[in-house]
């Protein structure tokens, strides 16, 4: 009798099995962290410490100004890699080339053209400078200023502080409002830049939800679950291709040979 040997099991090539949530189950909200470990607490603490330092010891505050400027600049530099990685990860989870084309066209266009914060800033700043310098503007001059702002504001979302440069270029090219008046708002442009960035982010988020609802790609139930529990759910992966049986090379196109007659 020939001894039969079973093949030695090798290392698993597939993903490591682990506990997976049951289909249709609601994810459990993780326990909340204590208040002293929240990000907003440390941000408010840093703001209060900065105000007290500038009030009680102005000399120390002046010495720490380069550190604060470097930190803010480093934070703003991280925006572009975060956007790039987010887009790459989103495209990696898309199983249709048509949807990839939509993402590749919509994201850069919206990030460059859908700048609500920059648009509000340019219009209000121009009108404020005109009123502060006692410069009358007729309806035609206001429309001409608006037409130039539509062109100069595009692409300002990718550069830090580009909204102020776009305002200076607009006032210099039009000539109806004194360009020297931008020094009236130069001191607060650092804070206005943060407000512009936040408003642009909110505008792009709302536009994303609106387009997704229009295209029928918005899962309202999933959005409600994520907002209610605070736990992000990964996108569903496409169904894997069926694995060929062992011994099948995948190159045989004809039928199997008939068994030999004895």
Automatic annotation (TrEMBL):
Keyword Chloroplast carried by entry: no
GO BP field: L-aspartate transmembrane transport
A GO CC term assigned to this protein in UniProt: plasma membrane
Record keywords, A-Z: Membrane, Symport, Transmembrane, Transmembrane helix, Transport
Domain of life: Bacteria
Location within or outside the cell: Membrane
Gene Ontology MF, one: fumarate transmembrane transporter activity
Compositionally skewed regions (Pro residues) per UniProt: 8-27, 235-247
Transmembrane spans: 39-56, 68-92, 164-188
Region spans: Disordered: 1-27, 230-262
Keyword Transmembrane annotated: yes
InterPro entries with a match to the protein in the record: Na-dicarboxylate_symporter, Na-dicarboxylate_symporter_CS, Na:dicarbo_symporter_sf
PANTHER family reported in the protein's UniProt record: AEROBIC C4-DICARBOXYLATE TRANSPORT PROTEIN (PTHR42865:SF1), PROTON/GLUTAMATE-ASPARTATE SYMPORTER (PTHR42865)
Protein's recorded name: C4-dicarboxylate transporter
Protein's organism: Streptomyces silvensis
Lineage of the organism: Bacteria, Bacillati, Actinomycetota, Actinomycetes, Kitasatosporales
